[in-house]
Specification:
- The protein has 4 domains: about 5-170, no CATH class; about 175-265, 2-Layer Sandwich (GMP Synthetase, Chain A, domain 3); about 280-445, Heat Shock Protein 90, CATH 3.30.565.10; about 495-620, Ribosomal Protein S5, domain 2.
- The longest helix has 29 residues, at about 575-605.
- The chain is built from 26 helices and 21 strands.
- With about 700 residues, it is of the alpha+beta class.
- The strands form 5 sheets. Strands 10-9-8-11-7-6-12-13 form an 8-stranded mixed beta sheet.
- The protein starts with 6 loop residues before the first helix and ends with a helix.
Length: about 700
């Protein structure tokens, strides 16, 4: 490999790494592998250095010379030949793995078998080679990183993805030509098998000069069948880019591939489904997705919270600040935060790509410099900002990231180009979003109404929100306690904290009482209010048993790994089956605590017998014997256990005969629908004993 083509990366290696790299090259040259051609590797590095890698990815590489070493070493081993098996380090790959690869068999790289003396290098190069071969199955084939020499992490997934993508855009490489031959009709292959490279010419490849995040490949083509093969190969590269961006971190700046083919001597016919981007953006920013226009307040606040959490990852002692200001004429609403801010790279990579949220990407792991600080991020879909166009005729964004220049972005229409300028003044680190209201919205704008909406939606935020109305009156929102103790100061109540690892949950039961004793439970039909990271999502009634839902209310704030996936409008919870079962179990255990408190208090007050029994019956109705396992049974008040046993005994008596329980135990066990808890078996055994006694007496 020539040094000139990869001068900038090569020069970042230390002397020992250069010596090892040259040793690998010499070993390749002396290996006798006639099929090995260094040109594809040289070209792959040239593509990476000149246009495929963005600033963030290059900075990531430069910060770890070990990554550069293995990238250059792996590029040295690239050989796009006619091999039918990919054989890194002499290992045979299973057939079922090859079946998952969308690349034609003839285009798979032949990885030379080299025995490198330096410990660990052979294994890492073997893994990178496997990653290149796996392409869209890369995440299943190799780990994200491996440890080299006991102290350096090598980002092997990223290195494999870089080389795989760079090889894909080298249309003159033998492997790519083979791939294109595979895409030709069978009738054309025999005629053009040896002349494929003469039927098209790549004029240029790189970043599109006018369309953001798009790779433009300009081609002159002299055959209609090759033209079709090139368009199919364009689709293949698009899928490859999409798959790699889902896996590797840092992800690639590009999200689209466009082949601009100039026909020579034929008339092409190209059809392809497309998306009306204007309609799609209107969908995300319209009432179809969000029913309440005030939702933009919640969405912009959650973006501010995430930005502050991300900066707190990087700066110890950082104090987050979020504010919302109404102009005196109610013409505009300004959102300010002192969070991480955005650089030009982040604006292009995440802000402009609808459906992609930085806060849900694995790059968070790289940004987080302190593994002991863990934050969960709210933004999931990267579309929340568009909700501001429900009410705005213009949005102005001022943002700056530490160590970067500031930018002022003015958006007048969502499907038009933005006015982006480098800020003349020194902007503070963070982001300021000014929403200029539409005239019809301005007429009905009431800061008091928006304040009420925020009080409901962000009251449990961990960060204080400074709200200033059009008259300058200031209200601080957020940072309230999730429990009920502070807000309910009168009357007898029973509360409990639910047992979660990182989330918080609380239950409340209020009762009716006279001056002597509790005589009933108060009715409450509020269900459970669910928050994620302190922001309100919805109210549900299915986390509590139906009878308990008539008297008990709750709050649940999900954070970290215990969060639930949300619908796109963030108003519905998309539980996984096991996750929902665990949540319900925790709520049932919370009911046990509350009921036990209630019955213990009632017993001390010695109410009339009928009133005490009525309270026990109501409390017992909270616990269906199907849901009461041994742990819940053992924790329950014994008076409740009696009622639960009676219900289960009644069920057994109606659905199972004593004869079957005594003489057909296997069939009876199959018919009991999994009632295998100890207390249930004890009830069944007692029921069988009664039947056996009657049989003996008969």
């Amino acid at each position: 490999m020539g040094h000139a083509e990869n001068q900038s990366l090569y020069n970042l290696l230390n002397d020992l790494q250069k010596r090892d790299l040259n040793a690998i090259r010499n070993r390749v040259c002396s290996s006798g592998l006639a099929c090995l051609d260094p040109k594809p590797g040289d070209r792959a590095i040239e593509i990476l250095e000149t246009w495929l890698l963005d600033d963030e990815q290059q900075q990531n590489l430069r910060s770890n010379p070990c990554d550069i070493f293995f990238l250059l070493a792996a590029s040295t081993l690239i050989s796009i030949g006619g091999a039918e098996n990919f054989n890194p380090a002499g290992n045979v790959l299973p057939k079922n793995l090859a079946s998952t690869i969308s690349t034609p068999e003839s285009t798979k790289p032949d990885w030379p078998t080299l025995d490198i003396e330096v410990g660990g290098q052979t294994e890492i190069l073997d893994l990178i080679g496997r990653g290149i071969f796996a392409s869209d199955g890369l995440a299943d084939e190799i780990p994200p990183r491996v440890l080299y020499d006991g102290k350096h992490d090598v980002n092997i997934q990223f290195l494999a993805a870089c080389l795989r993508l760079a090889m894909g855009f080298n249309l003159a490489a033998p492997g790519t030509l083979n791939h294109l031959r595979e895409l030709l009709p069978k009738s054309a292959v025999c005629n053009k098998n040896s002349a494929m490279e003469k039927l098209f010419t790549v004029i240029s490849a790189g970043a599109h000069p006018h369309v953001q995040a798009t790779i433009l490949v300009q081609i002159d083509c002299r055959d209609a069948e090759v033209h079709r093969a090139l368009k199919r190969y364009e689709s293949y590269l698009q899928r490859l880019l999409y798959d790699l961006n889902r896996i590797v971190r840092p992800r690639f700046l590009f999200t689209a591939v466009q082949f601009e083919i100039t026909p020579q001597g034929y008339q092409p016919i190209d059809f392809k489904f497309g998306v009306d981007t204007s309609s799609a953006l209107q969908l995300f920013a319209g009432n179809t997705l969000y029913r309440d226009r005030r939702v933009f307040l919640r969405e912009l606040v959650q973006n501010a919270v995430d930005a502050c959490n991300l900066r707190q990852m990087q700066e110890r002692g950082f104090t987050p600040a979020i504010g919302i200001d109404f102009s005196p004429d109610l013409d505009r609403i300004t959102f300010r935060d002192n969070g991480i801010g955005m650089s030009k790279q982040w604006i292009e990579k995440y802000f402009l790509n609808i459906g992609l949220s930085f806060y849900q990407s694995d790059e968070i792991v790289r940004v987080n410099r302190d593994a002991n600080i863990q934050f969960s991020f709210i933004s999931q879909f990267g579309i929340g900002f568009l909700s501001s166009f429900l009410v705005s005729r213009q949005v102005v964004i001022k943002t700056r990231q530490a160590g970067s220049e500031g930018f002022i972005i003015t958006i007048t229409h969502i499907d038009d180009y933005f006015d982006v300028r480098v800020a003349d003044e020194q902007l503070p680190v963070g982001t300021e979003v000014t929403v200029v209201l539409k005239e019809n919205v301005r007429q009905y704008c009431r800061s008091l109404e928006y304040l009420g909406y925020l009080k409901t939606n962000v009251r449990f935020l961990p960060i204080a929100l400074d709200f200033v109305d059009e008259k300058g009156a200031r209200t601080v929102l957020g940072q309230e306690s999730l429990n009920y103790d502070e807000e309910i100061r009168w009357g007898t109540k029973f509360t409990t904290k639910l047992n979660f690892a990182s989330s918080q949950g609380h239950l409340l039961l209020r009762v009716k009482e006279n001056h002597q004793y509790i005589y009933d439970m108060e009715s409450s039909r509020g269900g459970v209010s669910i928050f994620q990271d302190g922001i309100f999502i919805t109210q549900v009634d299915y986390l509590l048993p139906d009878s308990a839902g008539e008297h008990v209310i709750g709050r649940l704030n999900l954070v970290g790994d215990e969060k639930c996936e949300l619908s796109m409008d963030r108003n519905r919870l998309l539980w996984k089956k096991d996750q929902l079962a665990q949540i319900k179990k925790r709520f049932l255990m919370g009911l046990v605590v509350i009921v036990n408190q209630l019955l213990e208090t009632s017993a001390r007050q010695s109410p009339p017998e009928n009133i005490g029994r009525n309270i026990i019956q109501k409390a017992a109705s909270f616990f269906d014997f199907n849901a009461v396992d041994d742990a819940i049974y053992d924790a329950l008040n014994k008076a409740i256990c009696v009622f639960v046993e009676d219900e289960f005994r009644r069920f057994i008596r109606i659905n199972h005969s004593r004869y079957d329980l005594l003489h057909n135990p296997q069939q009876a066990a199959a018919d009991t629908h999994g009632y295998i808890y100890r207390w249930q078996q004890r009830v069944i055994d007692g029921y069988k004993e009664i039947g056996a006694g009657k049989a003996r007496r008969a």
